[in-house]
Amino acid sequence: MYDTDQRKLLSALSHAAIFFSTLFVSVGLPIALLFVTDDPIVKENAKESINFHLNVWIYGTIITILIWLTLGLLFPLAGLGYLLHWGLTIWAIASVLLNPDQPFRYPFIFRVL
């Protein structure tokens, strides 16, 4: 049996890491958790967080290119991107805190891990 409080904390930290920085630094925490912990739920949440980071970077790059190509006409798309990014992350954190025995799965993302 695994410690529920530790599982909640590490799973929430894994998903919340994306708030620390939008650069590549924030993905370090879920990568570290993936290798350090032996809790299978925390490992699954860390993998999902890494996949979400990759998706945020890919979609952010696409949105940035579209904004540049349209000379800023699609700038509101950036706001929608941030709203989805933050909203999904808050949903993930709340989910792992309310149901610590089940890993969170982000909808509509590509999973590399």
Descriptive labels:
113 residues, mainly alpha, elongated, single chain
Brief summary:
Its main location: membrane. By secondary structure, the chain is mostly helical.
Secondary-structure blueprint:
Elements: H1 4-16, H2 28-36, H3 40-69, H4 76-98
What does this structure look like?
With 113 residues, the chain is mainly alpha-helical. The protein is 66% helix and 0% strand. The protein contains four helices and no strands. Helix 1 runs parallel beside helix 3, helix 1 (4-16) runs antiparallel to helix 4 and helix 3 runs antiparallel to helix 4 (76-98). The longest helix has 30 residues, at 40-69.
Cα distance spanning the termini: 25 Å
- Which bin fits the share of residues in helices? 55-70%
Average pLDDT, to the nearest integer? 94
**Strand count, sense and closure of the main sheet?**
none
**Can you count the helices?**
4
Order of helices and strands: HHHH
By helix and strand content, what is the structural category? mainly alpha
Give the low-pLDDT segments.
none
Shape: elongated
Q: How many strands appear in the DSSP assignment? A: 0
Output the radius of gyration. 15 Å
Strand content: under 5%
